[in-house]
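User: Show me a protein chain along with its predicted structure.
Assistant: Here is one chain, sequence first, then structure tokens.
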Amino acid sequence: MAIKSHFKFSNSQRNGIFLLAILIVVVQCIYAFVDFSSEEIQTDSRQLEGFRKQVDSLKQISAEKNAPKVYLFNPNYITDYRGYTLGMTTEEIDRLLEYRAADQWINSAKQFQEVTQVSDSLLAVLAPLFKFPDWVTQPKPKTNWIDYSKMSDPKSYGSKTFAQKQDLNTATAHDLQKVNGIGVKLSDNIIKYRNKFKGGFISEIQLEDVYGLTPEVIYRVTNDFAVKTPRAFEKIDLNSASKDQLVTIQHIDYEIAHYIIEQRSLREGFKSFDELLLVKKFPVQKFEIIKLYLKLN
């Protein structure tokens, strides 16, 4: 007995199956390529631009963070390797090292070019990176001290002339106590300070070092007293003095003496006493007293 096949179709059945397959393909294509959404998507251009700027900002911050840092430096301490990385030639580096070996200092970009002979283009790149100490580039302001050298002028400082005033180096405690504001204690302080030095005061300005005397009281003292017989001493040449010589001056210790000599080398010698005000840690308040012991040759 023969088994009937279930996969045999008539012509009409085959046509129906073929039509059904075509419909399925057509439906799939329509589903894939036709947009059935009824709402149109709206984009906010302002918000999109804001997001874009935020992304750009984050990129810039990341780039700056990862960029190599450039530090300012003092050109006096450029080494062979540092000079090479900065673009200097061997000859330019050698000129700088030779200059520094002579214990001389560079204190400006212009001087750096004069010493090393670098080109203008390289100097334009390096100069913004130079950092010199503040005490080299910025002078300290003067303080408002009293100019006791004018105390003999009766029009400006009282009615007595220099000739009418009593010698401060021979005045007794009783003489000093006649000044308004000078009592037993202050007169004793003045005489004790005067006796610290063989020969007494050099100038009235030294009264500023006497403990307890205010500028007003000093003003009154100098109306009646002047140093007529200053003690004899030899002034020290500021441009040739050694450290040991400088420390013999009041208010100058070894640290300040070191900075004075260092500044002297930087400036290739002092041209005026006012340049001392550029010295690091210089006791500006005692400038006039220190000046008494110095000369410039």
